[in-house]
Amino acid sequence: MRIWQNKLVKLFKVKKLYIFLLIIFANLVITVFVYKNSDGTGLRSIIRTANAQSLPLTFLNSWAQFMSIFISIYIADIITDEYKTGTLKLSLLRPVGRVKLFHSKILALIIFNVVMVALIVLLTYVFGILTFGWGDYTLYNGTNYYGAQGVLLTVAAYALIIVPYTAFGMIVIFIAVLSNDMTTTIIASVELSLIGQYFNAFESLKAFSIVNQIYFFHELFVKNHDLGQAVLGIGVNLAYIIVFYLLSVRAFKKKDIVF
Amino acid sequence: MISNTLLETCNLTKSFDGRKIIDNLSLKVMKGDVYGFLGRNGQGKTTTIRLLTGLIFPDSGDVMINSHNLRTDFKQAISQIGAIVESPTFYGYLSGYDNLSLMANLVPDLKKKKAIDEVLEIVGLTGRARDKVQTYSLGMKQRLGIANALLGKPKLIILDEPTNGLDPQGMREIKEMISQLASERNITFFISSHLLNEVEKICNRVGIIGNGKLLAEGSIKELARNSQGRSLEEIYFEIIGR
């Protein structure tokens, strides 16, 4: 079966991916503009070291707010919109079991996250080179990393963040399977990511919040270096993935396709 | 013994929100039939088709396709059929060819390019295959839907109101295509419709549904003979009690 090919074709053919990247690019431009024009204006930029090497890690935490919205829109598109427009029927009328088809949706989510993260890193590096030049080191958490060390740290941090993005996506998939409606899925998922931020105010709950995970999961490995916290982080993300996978697959298997 | 039955439902029942939409429906489609499934709007034709294609699940009863139970042997059963349920829907941002290519990826052991070229040729869409589906007319989408249904060489094609919304020329093309595929490629058709004239012209057997129940079933000739040679329209109105 070549289901994954279908997912790639559809991902690169839809305009959404390019619109998302345009939004990311606009954010880069605005942030760099603020950095370059902040003197005497009271504006503060998140950029501490103006070089391309440091730029991706500087932005990593802030992508969470964008990615949570992009993931919600993407999932709503591949599940609820396909359900409502009737294109889901095309696949269901083929000798592919429902569970396998559902797995292909999860695969699509993972491919989306990987592609988005890879393109964001690439875009940020290229934009950084054009704006500031490559630079001599990667500054992260007060430490300078030189050459390949800095690049590897960046790649590792971005690779790690795919895990909570996938966990968040699984929750959105569950909402999408239940709601059958694109707008409801997007609004409910964005609400979840907004409300989830309040959990961060409670120290004891923070580690279990998916919102906290999509912002800070990578830091457990590349910044804090606390094994206990890292194991807990992995456990929390896996728990979200497994629980919402089981709930969603059960609902999808029994779902009547009436559109 | 080799069965001559290609599609059979046994006491199929389906309710939505406590309301029985399909009520103990048992019908039989034989190999080589062009079976017309008649009924007024809202009588359960599309729901039946959704049950036949596994898109919705019956409360009770079974669907057998070429002796494979759709519930317990889904992959074998569904690989016997091609279908357009309700209206032909595709990814508008992709070309007709790309849409078929995506679907061909889901058919095991298919020589993709050859199969797609062949079905496009059959439905006469080769010249427009590279255009985006969003630029297609309804008639072209219907033909693309038939091309999609033909992928994987099904024994049975299920079409839900295939001429709905088409202009007279489009209706004629679809009817001719069905007759041609049935006679030349030996494909069995199950066609739902409320257009009696259309069914009378292209079908050899009919089933009539009313309030989710099968009110009558048989060959058009047989029904006419039992009704002193009356037309299908007259028979139909007598059966549904109008």
Helix and strand topology:
The complex is a heterodimer of chains A (259) and B (242).
Chain A: H1 3-13, H2 16-36, H3 55-59, H4 63-85, H5 87-92, H6 98-132, E1 137-140, E2 143-146, H7 148-179, H8 182-199, H9 203-206, H10 210-216, H11 219-222, H12 227-254
Antiparallel strand pairs in A: 1-2
Helix pairs in contact in A: 1-6, 2-6, 4-6, 4-7, 4-8, 6-7, 7-8, 7-10, 7-12
Chain B: E1 5-16, E2 19-25, E3 28-30, E4 34-38, H1 45-52, E5 60-65, E6 68-69, H2 74-78, E7 81-84, H3 96-104, H4 112-123, H5 138-150, E8 156-160, H6 168-184, E9 188-193, H7 196-202, E10 205-210, E11 213-219, H8 220-226, H9 232-239
Parallel strand pairs in B: 4-9, 4-10, 7-8, 8-9
Antiparallel strand pairs in B: 1-2, 1-3, 1-5, 5-6, 10-11
Helix pairs in contact in B: 3-4, 4-5
Give a quick rundown of the structure.
The complex is a heterodimer of chains A (259) and B (242). Chain A is mainly alpha-helical and 259 residues long.
**End-to-end distance of chain B:** 42 Å
Strand content of chain B: 25-35%
Number of structurally distinct domains of chain B: 2
Radius of gyration of chain B: 18 Å
Overall body shape of chain A: globular
Q: Given the structure, what is the number of helices of chain A?
A: 12
Low-confidence stretches of chain B: none
Most extensive chain contact? A-B, 26 and 33 residues
User: What is the mean predicted local confidence, pLDDT of chain B?
Assistant: 92
- Indicate the radius of gyration of chain A in whole angstroms: 20 Å
Number of strands of chain B: 11
By oligomeric state, this entry counts as heterodimer
Q: Structural class per helix/strand content of chain A? A: mainly alpha
> Into which percent range does the helicity of residues of chain A fall?
over 70%
